[in-house]
Design a protein that fits this description.
heterodimer; A: mainly alpha; 78% helix; elongated; B: mainly alpha
Chain lengths: 128, 128
């Protein structure tokens, strides 16, 4: 693709956002994945008739459930990060605060996603 | 900074709210709210991994009136964001972009959201 900017302009960060298309596509792909995954999640929780420790552990301890739960966690947090990033980019004008917020967001989402995935794997391998 | 000193014309105070704009900001709002829900999911999974006592504590919070309200707020937000998200994906492939289709799909999203929320309430309370 032809780039109609000078080397200096590119270095200064002017011009296209470079990874905008990737962001757009990732948001749509995670959205499509989340359609069946979130429906599955809600239906599964409704099907666990009694919400106590034993029943929920038993629900997670089937391989298919653990896999779907991990996929759901990954897709959901990635989608959330992309959406929240857009909110920060739209409403925070001060460059320093914007960049700090975007970094904090990335860290927070990664932490929460990793913790959720870790907990799921941990629960899967727990002997009751 | 140069960007915040220039005055803005009144916008939100003047522009009449319409189905299009209201659903759009609600889509963003439910998305942000669901991100908070995602963090709650992490807490829930961590409590589950921590053992029966911790899980019982977190479940006790969800069984209260404020816990239930919060859960149903998340359920409503999820259905709205899901249905409106599908509307967005259809727009992305060029379907339903004219104003009449937009209004029709908008009302359909609202109807579906309410219906799905009521269905979930019904199923969760032990019906069906």
């Amino acid at each position: 693709m032809a780039r109609f900017s000078t080397a200096l302009a590119r270095v200064r960060g002017h011009g296209a956002a470079k990874s905008g298309t990737h962001h757009w596509l990732a948001q749509r792909l995670t959205a499509v994945a989340l359609i069946p995954l979130s429906v599955w999640f809600v239906v599964s929780l409704l099907a666990v008739t009694e919400m106590n420790y034993e029943t929920v552990i038993a629900w997670i301890q089937s391989p298919l459930v653990a896999v779907f739960l991990l996929l759901f966690i990954f897709a959901m947090f990635y989608h959330a990060q992309l959406g929240l990033q857009m909110i920060i980019e739209d409403y925070i004008k001060c460059k320093a605060v914007k960049i700090a917020s975007l970094i904090a967001l990335k860290f927070a989402v990664f932490f929460a996603a990793f913790a959720a995935a870790f907990a799921t794997v941990d629960i899967y391998f727990t002997t009751p | 900074m140069a960007d915040d000193t220039r005055p803005l014309s009144p916008h939100l105070q003047i522009y009449k709210p319409q189905l299009t704009s209201v659903l759009s900001i609600t889509h963003r709002g439910t998305g942000a709210f669901l991100s908070v829900g995602a963090f709650f999911l992490t807490c829930w999974l961590l409590a589950l991994a921590d053992g029966a006592e911790h899980f019982a504590k977190i479940q006790a919070h969800f069984s209260t009136w404020y816990g239930c309200c919060l859960l149903y707020a998340f359920v409503f937000s999820l259905y709205f964001h899901l249905c409106n998200g599908i509307r967005h994906l259809l727009w992305d492939v060029g379907i339903g972009l004219d104003i009449r289709a937009t209004y029709r799909s908008g009302y359909a999203v609202l109807a579906a959201t309410v219906a799905l929320t009521l269905l979930t309430l019904f199923l969760a309370s032990g019906g069906g």
